[in-house]
Amino acid sequence: MIYDVIIIGAGPAGLAAGLYSSRARLNTLIIEKDGDGGQIATTDEVANYPGSIENASGPSLIARMVEQVNEFGAKKVNDEIKSVELNGDIKVLKGAKEEYQAKTVIIATGATPKPIGCPGEKELTGRGVSYCATCDAAFFEDLEVFVVGGGDSAVEEAMYLTKFARKVTIVHRRDELRAAKSIQEKAFKNEKMNFMWDTTITELKGDGILESMIVKNVKTGEEKEIFADEDDGTFGVFVFVGYNPATKLFDGIIDMEDGYIKTDADMKTNIPGVFAAGDNRVKSLRQVVTATADGAIAAVQAEKYINEHFED
């Protein structure tokens, strides 16, 4: 069978694309290798998505999206795409289970935040450890927060967190920030900002919630444990050391920049009939709201491409 649209990935971008393409009566297939939802599936509360009501969680929001996609008849399969042939009129995707063919492909494989890589991090993610300030800052109102990283995004996110937390400390493995000088100047002027130089976090601890962390001075080798304030019971650790876009499959096939797929405003890649949407593409803001917008645009453009290149 040759599908009109195959979407790789069932996160917000992929599901939005599936909704728009299936609603346009295009024969649509969504291929997901793991579970639906991408990064948002691990988010307890989604307060910054327009219209998010009843304290919607990541899983509940995704469940609604999946329901809508199913309602309009998009087909979904669980498979991992191992190789692709995208240059012909008919695109071929070879999965671990099956081979798939389509007139257009929307790549919505997402990206994952780079972790610190220390013990306790995985267990305490969503329980004090976060990778998104705009998502989770409000949960740390009047608490103490530590930000890992020293680049532009780390410092900018740290300053954003000062609107909520009573104290924000940047933990950086070097003795100076890598962020642009203009950003650094603002940070150094902010009274709530503090800096822990030449330091890495080697372990995060807590029973169901983050309660302490062990930090190490990379120059002296000295380690110490930092505990949550007794009255607070917890603190926040926000990690901003970069992202890993899930685009390795398309290396050497699609134009990229630092591992992110390059598209125009219509989500078109350098290959006709191939689009990208969501966190895996070059963009300035990676949030659910921008992912769903990308997916919608990609699907509308895929329909337009089919109408122009294929006869009924």
From TrEMBL:
Q: Which UniProt keywords apply?
A: Disulfide bond, FAD, Flavoprotein, NADP, Oxidoreductase, Redox-active center
Q: Which residue range or ranges hold the FAD/NAD(P)-binding domain?
A: 3-295
InterPro entries on file: FAD/NAD-bd_sf, FAD/NAD-binding_dom, Ferredoxin-NADP_redctase_2, Pyr_nucl-diS_OxRdtase_2_AS, Thioredox_Rdtase
Q: Name one GO cellular component term.
A: cytoplasm
* Enzyme Commission no: 1.8.1.9
- Cofactor(s) for this protein? FAD
Co-factor binding comment: Binds 1 FAD per subunit.
Q: Does the keyword Oxidoreductase apply?
A: yes
Instruction: State the similarity comment.
Output: Belongs to the class-II pyridine nucleotide-disulfide oxidoreductase family.
NCBIfam families cross-referenced by the UniProt entry: TRX_reduct
Kindly provide the name given to this protein in its UniProt entry. Answer: Thioredoxin reductase
**What is the species listed in this Swiss-Prot or TrEMBL entry?**
Tissierella pigra
